[in-house]
Amino acid sequence: MKNKVAAFFHSTRFKTTLWYATSFLIFEIVIGITIYLYLKTNLYGQLDLSLSNQVHIIHDLVEDSKIDFTNFAPDSIYSSPYEAIYDLIFETIASSPRNSYIQVQFGNEVIFQSENLKGHLITIPNIQGDEIHLTDIDDTTLSPRPIRAAISEQGKYKIVVAFPVVQILQTLSQLTDIYLIIAPVFLVFSFLGGAIISVKSLSRIDTITEKTNKITTQNLEEILEGGEFDDEYGRLVNTINKMIHRIKTSIEYMTQFSISASHELKTPLTILRGETELALRNSKTPEEYKEILRSNYEETLRMINIVDKLFFISKFDNAIIKVNKSEVSLNQVLENLVDQLKYLGKEKKVCLETHFDKDTMVNLDVNLFKQAITNLVDNAIKYGEEDKPVLIETKLLTNNKVKISITNKGEGIRKENLPKIFERFYREESSRNRDTGGSGLGLSVVKSIVEWHNGKVLVDSVPGKKTTFSIIV
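The structure assignment produced for this chain is given below.
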């Protein structure tokens, strides 16, 4: 149980859930702060606008009344300046809830205060200009929190309209309390939502994992379902299916390679065993023993040749062969090599003819390149007609490449077999004999060497007439 819990906390599901919940929480905090700041700004803005409007209205009403408060005399209508001011601004006071505190001064004399001031004088700071001044006034006798005030000092009148911001602060506080209550709820729901989403989204991974675990070398033909979907999981399924196919192809190749290698080695070993048993069974003349030893020697060389080529190919496949490239004269390399290979055609009276284009410098590993050319020339002589020359020629191409061609006249290669000739151990049936049939590895070696030089091998054959192998580097 403990291991399962630990595995869960290290699982992608938990990490996905955690990321989802964290992202949701951050988003929630940002939204909450944004709403709080917007509401605060909006409430204070509306309050300032309301207070400013009230100051404007009161000032205009008092100015337009033309009442002389300097020598004010009670009459049958107004017994005091207070009653006069109150009558003028009554509708304004009644229609606006945001004028809790109103104070009007004429000169240095307070001629009007709202009832809630109860004779308490609001100290007006010194202001300049005709514009309305907005400020916070700290007066704990009126309110434990600051009072927002709009102040106008135009002409002989000083007008103050103020409102305690405690109500705004209470509104913001209530909003904060509500947010603190619902935030954990949303956090829980975000965890649950993240868990559900991660489980749903990753359930296909479990299916892929389960099916992949069941695939072995015995059932590599199995194909994972879901590759038809154009999403991450579909691409993953397609990638795994391609990998399984590559593994299947590699195993089939290794199996075929092992069978073919065993077959190729079995033939000379069987011959060696048979001739050795024959030599041991009865006494023979020295000449007969020499003939048996000569045959055994040939079969031993054949096995050594197979093993050498297998070892060479294996080093290429595993990228452990060391390639030493250098700038060399192509014509010079080929001329020296042709001189060394002339002996190959003596038995079949085959001569090597050359036709070299303008010399050029190429970047080659000379030893490997000579091995590739030697294999092609050897095959051209081996499978060509007697007393027919083998032509070796070069041609400069327009893309700074050079083409080396080896052409012989002979039986040729059937068109349907051309794609197979570079496969390891492949040989046409007509070449499967001890006199001409090789191991089926020579062309594979050539292809590996040429590809290591970033080149390519081409073959063109007309059965019964001629065959040309070309290397482009």
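Interim note for the steering committee: The longest helix spans residues 12-65. The chain has three domains: 2-170, 232-316, 323-472.
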